[in-house]
Design a protein that fits this description.
Helices cover 35% and strands 15% of the residues. The chain is α/β, with parallel strands linked by helices. The chain has one domain: Rossmann fold (3-Layer(aba) Sandwich), CATH 3.40.50. α3 links the parallel β4 and β5. The radius of gyration is 19 Å and the shape is globular.
């Protein structure tokens, strides 16, 4: 009997779905993968907080790791995940080369959470007026991380368009994975009737024009099960890549 595909998520912080949008997104990804029958592990160099999700109650293996630590290499080689998801580009910068070296057969996936170069450009435009300059220092790092990985998960269709038209990122290299919502369990007011906006409690420098408003239920991109289209794209890609490998005598894989 074939064992379940193993996915490791390397997080910038431990997910806090009750207090941050990023934490909620990570929890969406974890539950979607588990719903597809995947085994999920999570690792981070950060310390858990009182708001952190108890991943062990979700049957998620947890590990503490450190950047620039050779012990990570041997630990990862022993863990031998089929998929590694990097939580934002700076985590790919820290660990991506080590993942490629210690576990070259793993599919490497970047979750942008937000397209940070676009956020930076909008913030600069708000402060200094003028045009939207996407070609900033953040873009150099973020686009490089996208090119180094096999697939990038995007939360916004507009951000996907920016990647395609401004940075020539191939369509097959990006997948749309918005927030997952179970519509049967919530009542979503119209935009006009919404009295408040959701704002991340973290002290990000967010442009005022980018408040995350409540939207009408008809505009939501997630299905009733909470598994978004990007999840299906990731699962299909993982299956094709994993099922195409042939086990070699040393216990590794040949692609």
């Amino acid at each position: 009997m074939q064992s379940a595909v193993h996915c490791l998520i390397l997080g910038k912080v431990w997910p806090e779905p009750s207090s941050t949008a990023a934490g909620r997104r990570t929890a969406d990804i974890i539950r979607s993968l588990q719903a597809a029958g995947y085994r999920v592990s999570f690792a981070s160099a950060a310390r858990p907080s009182e708001h952190s999700l108890d991943l062990e109650t979700l049957s998620v293996g947890t590990h503490t790791v450190q950047p620039n630590d050779s012990a990570f290499d041997s630990w990862l080689a022993e863990l031998a995940p089929d998929v590694v998801i990097f939580d934002r580009f700076m985590i790919e910068e820290q660990f991506g080369w080590r993942v490629e070296k210690a576990c070259p057969q793993a599919l490497r996936v970047l979750d942008t959470s937000d397209l940070h170069c676009l956020r930076e450009a909008r913030q600069a435009q708000l402060k200094h007026a003028g045009g939207l300059d996407l070609y900033n220092d953040i873009a150099l790092r973020e686009i490089a991380a996208i090119h180094r990985t096999d697939l990038t998960l995007m939360i916004s269709e507009y951000e996907m368009e920016v990647l395609r038209t401004q940075f020539d990122i191939p369509e097959a290299q990006i997948a749309y994975w918005p927030f997952g919502l179970t519509l049967s369990r919530i009542e979503v007011p119209s935009f006009r009737s919404a009295a408040t906006f959701y704002h991340d409690r973290q002290l990000h420098a967010r442009p005022q024009c980018r408040c995350r408003a409540l939207v009408q239920a008809g505009d939501l991109a997630a299905d009733s099960s909470g598994i978004a289209r990007g999840g299906a794209a990731l699962l299909r890609l993982v299956w094709r890549k994993v099922s195409s490998r042939t086990t070699c005598a040393e216990g590794g894989f040949l692609v």
